[in-house]
């Protein structure tokens, strides 16, 4: 009996010690460390909202974002900073360009100072990308845009660079034009009616990417990134992920079969062909696995799809409320191409279009933040950043507002929901009276309710 009592006492003591240690660890992680870091950063002049136990600043950030999203922007204001990143705007004002915020107990240094941003983005080995959350990793895979492994990045980046060479891009023009013409044919039935260009460009960009990356027509339909984040249902995400994977595997197998039977010139000269060549290559160091082929296709699709979709839609929105710039863009297009199909040489001469796209990227950039991490203590500018920090680069404060804006003379044209715009060689646009100006961020900055315009053939 005595020995049983001893055993109970021993186990209880162990449990007590274990509990105390667990409590100390939790207390250390959730209270002591955040407070120590806050003091350390404050001593270097870096302030920030106070850390709150367990939640950090997540609750106040969600509240601010919810409030900002509860109304739409009036007068088509381009000042979208207060809407998509209200917390950063507020803390930029009260704490400075660089400040510390907390995602739970994870510390983030928010950086808006151009010199520091340059330094971080120029030193990719010192500031690697942030590791993806498990669900995101599952969906996006580990491709060039997401891998945190420098050797893997280098290998994949070489392949990706090929796809963006001038000649590769030139060879993509006919496919892109063919897809745009298909879209314009669809628009023929909508003369005088409302269309949502955001929806239509979703189809167009998806079609272009599928044909460019995989030389497949749009038989497989990849979902947009947003689809994954509309639902918290992991099972649904898994199903979608599996669907995408299976579609790519089918295309890969078909391509490999064609290469073996000699139907196709080796693996083809599109991006998938390039990846398959690397997969079957003799050089062990450069060879990539089937999973890497699949992840690379996924990454290119996701990185290219919704960004381009949103950019095109925002461009149409801006042109719809600025008929003067519409006119200029149309004149330029007509001068260079008349009613002919655009050609590569002429495309390079589209100066006004280039300005319009750059200005759209400035005002409505689909990507407004970059995530990096700090693995070892590091000096950034005059700051010493301890290991374990995440860096959140916010480019909104650099770009936001109407300053230097080619679309700045907006006040008069704004009243014009009925303002007419010449958008292409074939159509003019009027912004639909039903359009609601509601930019929001869900990974990328997109029009929450689409971009509805009235279409008028010329
Ligand atoms: C308006 C259109 C686009 C915008 C605004 C945009 C923006 C960006 C930004 C800001 C990054 C850097 C992210 C970071 O370093 O954290 C990036 C990376 C990347 N983008 Fe895009 N992108 C666009 C279109 C595309 C397209 C069409 C493709 C491919 C078809 C693409 C493929 C990639 C890839 C592969 C990376 C990773 C590069 C690397 O890490 O080396 N993007 N993009």
UniProtKB/TrEMBL annotation:
Coiled-coil regions, chain positions: none
Membrane topology listed for this record: Single-pass membrane protein
An MF annotation (GO) of this entry: iron ion binding
Compartments where found: Membrane
Classification via Pfam families: p450
Gene Ontology CC entries for this record: membrane
Domain of life: Eukaryota
Transmembrane domains' residue ranges: 7-32
Protein name from the UniProt record: Cytochrome P450
UniProt-listed InterPro entries: Cyt_P450, Cyt_P450_sf, Cytochrome_P450_Monooxygen
Keyword annotations of the record: Heme, Iron, Membrane, Metal-binding, Monooxygenase, Oxidoreductase, Transmembrane, Transmembrane helix
Stated family: Belongs to the cytochrome P450 family.
Principal subcellular localization: membrane
């Amino acid at each position: 009996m005595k020995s049983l009592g001893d055993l109970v006492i021993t186990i209880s003591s162990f449990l007590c010690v274990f509990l105390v240690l667990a409590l100390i660890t939790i207390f250390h992680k959730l209270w002591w460390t955040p407070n120590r870091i806050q003091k350390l950063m404050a001593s270097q002049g870096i302030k920030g909202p106070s850390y709150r136990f367990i939640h950090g600043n997540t609750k106040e950030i969600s509240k601010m974002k919810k409030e900002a999203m509860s109304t739409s922007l009036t007068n088509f204001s381009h000042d979208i900073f207060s809407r998509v990143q209200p917390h950063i705007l507020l803390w930029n004002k009260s704490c400075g360009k660089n400040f510390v915020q907390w995602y739970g107990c994870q510390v983030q240094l928010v950086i808006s100072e151009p010199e520091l941003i340059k330094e971080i983005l120029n030193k990719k080995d010192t500031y690697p990308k942030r590791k993806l959350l498990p669900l995101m990793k599952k969906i996006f895979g580990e491709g060039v845009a997401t891998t945190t492994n420098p050797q893997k990045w280098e290998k994949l980046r070489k392949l990706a660079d090929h796809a963006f060479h001038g000649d590769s891009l030139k060879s993509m023009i006919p496919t892109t034009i063919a897809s745009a013409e298909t879209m314009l044919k669809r628009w023929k039935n909508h003369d005088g009616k409302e269309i949502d260009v955001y929806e239509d460009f979703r189809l167009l960009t998806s079609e272009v990417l599928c044909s460019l990356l995989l030389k497949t027509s749009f038989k497989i339909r990849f979902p947009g990134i947003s689809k994954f984040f509309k639902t918290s249902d992991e099972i649904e995400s898994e199903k979608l992920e599996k669907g995408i994977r299976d579609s790519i595997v089918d295309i890969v197998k078909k391509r490999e079969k064609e290469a073996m039977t000699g139907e196709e010139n080796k693996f083809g000269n599109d991006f998938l062909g390039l990846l398959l060549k690397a997969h079957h290559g003799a050089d062990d160091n450069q060879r990539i696995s089937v999973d890497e082929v699949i992840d690379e296709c996924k990454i290119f699709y996701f990185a290219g799809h919704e960004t381009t979709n949103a950019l095109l839609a925002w461009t149409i929105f801006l042109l719809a409320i600025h008929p003067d710039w519409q006119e200029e863009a149309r004149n330029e297009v007509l001068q260079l191409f008349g009613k002919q199909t655009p050609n590569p040489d002429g495309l390079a001469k589209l100066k006004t279009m280039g300005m319009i796209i750059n200005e759209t990227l400035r005002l409505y950039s689909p990507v407004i933040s970059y995530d990096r991490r700090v693995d070892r203590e590091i000096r950034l500018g005059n700051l010493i950043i301890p290991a374990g920090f995440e860096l959140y680069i916010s480019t909104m404060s650099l770009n936001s507002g109407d300053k230097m804006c080619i679309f700045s003379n907006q006040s008069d044209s704004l009243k014009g929901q009925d303002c007419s715009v010449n958008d292409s060689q074939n159509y003019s646009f009027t912004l639909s009276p039903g359009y609601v100006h509601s930019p929001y961020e869900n990974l990328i900055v997109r029009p929450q309710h689409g971009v509805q315009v009235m279409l008028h053939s010329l």
